[in-house]
Amino acid sequence: MNKQVSEHERWLFVSDVDDTLTGDDDALAKLMDALAAARDWVVLAYNSSRPCASLRQTFREKPQMLTPDFLVGAMGTEIEDGASGEVVAAYSARLDGWQRDRIQAMMATMPFTPHPEAFQTRFKASYDVPDEDSYRQVLARLQAEDIDAKVVYSGGKNLDIIPRAAGKAAVIDFLRQSLQIPAEQVVVAGDSGNDVDMFVDPYKGIVVANADPELKARRGDNIYQAQARHAAGVLEGLRHWGVL
Fold first, then answer.
1. Among residues 77, 95, 98, 216, which is most buried (max CB within 10 A)?
2. How confident is the model at residue 4 (pLDDT cuts 50, 70, 90)?
């Protein structure tokens, strides 16, 4: 990784994108203005369940969004340099060896619809499932077939299968160690169940007011429940934690 952290770059801020940053364009512009003024001491990363290629389309549609230092996509299975798009190969190398072909073959025997091809990646297989029982069925089949993988169930309908070493939290740990930023100086923000993985002590969390119940249920001294929605809630949280 080429980026270095100066003595003034004291924070790593990692945020989900859809319905956390997006959802209110005026609030998004205000948040981005505040972050732009803090680039000397804030390393910015966007962390989404969508692949990086899909996220870059969002940037084209919302030019007010800052180019992040790092772009994390596909449920914590890929990292790119925000400006150049160069893949962070050291992280991808950690995920080599997982058995996507076996997973795909197994899921083909189950009555679940794959997500569109644009959301399927080398290290992520995603499906629509009707309920939590379906999630448990997939877990049982993976165990029965001795396939080592992590399964993320969120929103009551989304099921993502990724390598055991991957995930939204795994990416943050990789980034902060690479950048030599203490865990106490990491702030995360999210709105949905698939963001729960990021809310790890001693990281400081921001839960926006429009968050799903499964994320709003997270409580603790290191979790701030914002009163505002979307980007306004993120800005509120960053001010609460003293980042801005």
1. 77
2. very low
User: Residues 137, 178: one domain?
Assistant: no
Instruction: Label the pairing between strands 78-81 and 70-73.
Output: antiparallel
Give CA–CA dist 165/48, Å, rounded. Answer: 17
According to the 3-state scheme, what is the secondary structure of 138-204?
HHHHHHHCCCCCEEEEECCCEEEEECCCCCHHHHHHHHHHHHCCCHHHEEEEECCHHHHHHCCCCCE
* Residue 198 near residue 169 (C-beta atoms within 8 A): yes
Cα–Cα distance for residue pair 208/221, rounded to 1 Å? 16
Q: Which two tokens stand for residue 29?
A: 């512009």
One domain for residues 76 and 28: yes
**Token pair belonging to 207:** 């839960």
* pLDDT at site 155: 83
Asked whether residue 240 carries a pLDDT value surpassing 60, the answer given is yes
Interval 17-56: pLDDT, tens: 999 999 999 999 999 999 999 999 999 999 999 999 999 9
- Into how many domains does the chain fold? 2
Shared-domain flag, residues 180 and 106: no
Strands 125-128 and 113-114, how do they pair?
antiparallel
Closest CA to 72 of 188, 202, 159: 188
How much is the pTM?
0.91
Predicted confidence (pLDDT) per residue in 140-173, tens digit: 999 999 999 999 998 889 999 999 999 999 999 9
